[in-house]
Design brief:
This protein is an alpha+beta fold. The chain folds into two domains: 3-116, no CATH class; 123-369, Outer membrane phospholipase (ompla), Chain C (Beta Barrel). It contains nine helices and 13 strands. The protein has a twelve-stranded antiparallel barrel. A hairpin with an 8-residue loop joins strand 3 (157-170) and strand 4 (179-190).
């Protein structure tokens, strides 16, 4: 339900950032300010097509006025962050930088700035998708055998989905830059077609993060650096005993773009844990060798061709044994509101339970929030 109203609410905010920044009147200070009729008409024109039939004109007018009052303190920041989006809404061509390269990440960064100005919206973080068909060759049943679990009997086809959101904690820590977020990503593998053992979730990985994010606009070798982040990340499957997997990392993410191509480089440092007294000791390290398989960095790239987005992710441990992973993705339009998603993974770490198990997984479904 929340995502359904994201588009009209964002459209409303785009109208509101065009308001002149002037001294507040007594009426505004009392909390009863209303938009001038000319701006109200503009706001309604933008909001009405995506608002749904259950909202009346009166309710839309009230929403326009409410957003105008609540977001007055953030209009300046939103205006600066969304210059490109405002131009796009007026039909201007502002999709390229001075060198003629298309800025494919401009829209996403702009939308995130809009969400920061609206406390009723959660901002997508990583990709959000649902793959009703996820086929995995070479099932890893050893951990479940050790735990005496029914999941030793697995179907090769399961359901895979990911939910990833973030919320703003504090904006503009360093002047007009430096935004602190809390994020959460849930990646689940569900044996939905395995009715013999009551359709259990085979694995669920939880990844809460604290993120300090900086937008940027400088170039090197023709590539524009648009975003830099420092992240404190915990990842766990929420299990105990032989099935327990977890690790903590400090990560740095830097994002570049040039034309229809964007890439990010994310190295990390694993925070050390005590060895404990074995796998049954809850204070010990569940997976001391995880870096040998999951590597020390992740390199991701994406290329947009019309409405299609092709992506590549590579992880490597920089060792002679060459462990790591490769993931290919393709998202494509299915309808005006739906995009298809094909994902192919090969290597280690498709999930935490499989961090030391080499597998190939192919999934097909829909993606709700893409890279850009």
């Amino acid at each position: 339900m929340l995502l359904r109203y994201a588009a009209p609410l964002t459209a409303l905010l785009m109208t509101l950032i065009s308001l002149p920044l002037s001294a507040e009147t007594d009426e505004e200070e009392s909390g009863s300010a209303e938009l001038p009729e000319e701006l109200m008409v503009q706001c309604l024109k933008i909001a009405a097509p995506g608002a749904g039939g259950e909202l009346t004109i009166k309710q839309l007018r009230e929403l326009c006025n409410t957003l105008a009052r609540e977001d007055a303190n953030q209009q300046d920041a939103v205006r600066r962050a969304l210059e490109a989006l405002s131009d796009e809404a007026e039909g201007k061509d502002n999709d390229s930088d001075p060198t003629g390269n298309s800025r494919i990440l401009e829209r996403r960064l702009g939308m995130e700035a809009l969400n920061r100005a609206n406390r009723f919206l959660l901002t997508p973080h990583r990709r959000n998708y649902l793959l009703p068909v996820s086929y995995q060759e070479g099932r890893n049943i050893e951990p479940y055998t050790q735990a005496d679990s029914q999941l030793t009997d697995q179907k090769k086809i399961e359901v895979e989905f990911q939910l990833s959101v973030k919320i703003l904690i504090r904006e503009g820590i360093f002047g007009d830059n430096g935004h602190l977020y809390m994020a959460y990503t849930n990646h689940s593998l569900w044996q939905a077609y395995n009715e013999d053992i009551s359709r259990p979730f085979r694995e669920t990985n939880h990844q809460p993060e604290l993120i300090l994010s900086f937008v940027n606009d400088w170039e090197i070798f023709g590539f524009r650096n648009v975003l830099n982040e420092v992240m404190l990340t915990h990842q766990s499957n929420g299990q105990s005993g032989a099935l327990s997997r977890s690790w903590d990392r400090v990560m740095v993410n830097t994002v570049f773009e040039r034309g229809p191509f964007a890439f990010s480089f994310t190295p990390w440092y694993r925070l050390p844990e005590s060895e404990g007294d074995g796998p049954d000791d809850p204070t010990g390290d569940d997976n001391p060798d995880i870096e040998k398989y999951m590597g020390h960095f992740e390199l991701s790239g994406a290329y947009q061709r019309k409405e299609n987005i092709l992506s590549l992710m590579v992880r490597n441990n920089l060792r002679s044994d060459n462990r790591g992973a490769v993931e290919l993705g393709w998202s494509f339009p299915v309808s005006s509101t739906t995009r298809g998603y094909l994902k192919i993974f090969n290597g280690y770490g498709h999930s935490l339970i499989d961090y030391d198990h080499h597998t190939t997984a192919v999934g097909l479904g829909v993606i709700f929030t893409d890279l850009f």
